User: Which sequence fits this backbone?
């Protein structure tokens, strides 16, 4: 817990865990403490001033089971003074009507609970029908978008670019 950033994620298939690990490598393990929600829950979340949260979207815009179980607890937490960046996983081809909806739901909850959100990324390079994870102007996702099903080959570059963006937004030493 000595790392300045807490990275909280949940992963049923392993894809979100893989992205979390890759991101921690890119930011530096001394900067990031990984917390798998299935094992750790929301433990120590209040002690971090900077957070990264990884959430996959399931089926028709639904929350992944570990996030769903902890959602009521999140709804009671105060995120005032916390800088939070999100990344979401979804399938833009198979579930294009609900692409990254869980990330959008998490964004809205955190914003309502006082978080300062950062890490927005362009929608360029994605093809989907609808998403709750869009900025108000519809030009950005409210975090890093990953599609391991349809664009696995893009993941590493997207993580690299986002890590660089977060180093700046979180004011981290390179």
Assistant:
């Amino acid at each position: 817990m000595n790392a300045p950033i807490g990275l909280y994620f949940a992963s049923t298939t392993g894809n979100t865990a893989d992205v979390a690990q890759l991101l921690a490598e890119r930011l530096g393990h001394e900067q990031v403490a990984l917390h798998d929600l299935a094992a750790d829950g929301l433990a120590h979340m209040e002690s971090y001033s900077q957070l990264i949260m990884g959430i996959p979207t399931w089926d028709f815009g639904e929350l992944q089971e570990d996030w769903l179980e902890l959602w009521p607890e999140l709804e009671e937490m105060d995120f005032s003074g916390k800088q939070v960046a999100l990344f979401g996983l979804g399938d833009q081809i198979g579930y294009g009507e609900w692409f990254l909806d869980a990330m959008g739901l998490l964004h809205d909850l955190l914003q309502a609970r006082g978080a300062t959100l950062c890490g927005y990324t362009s929608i360029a390079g994605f093809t989907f029908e609808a998403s709750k994870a869009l900025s108000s102007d519809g030009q950005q996702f409210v975090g890093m978008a990953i599609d391991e099903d349809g664009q696995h080959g893009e993941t590493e570059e997207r993580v690299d670019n986002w890590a660089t963006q977060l180093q700046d937004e979180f004011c981290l030493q390179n």
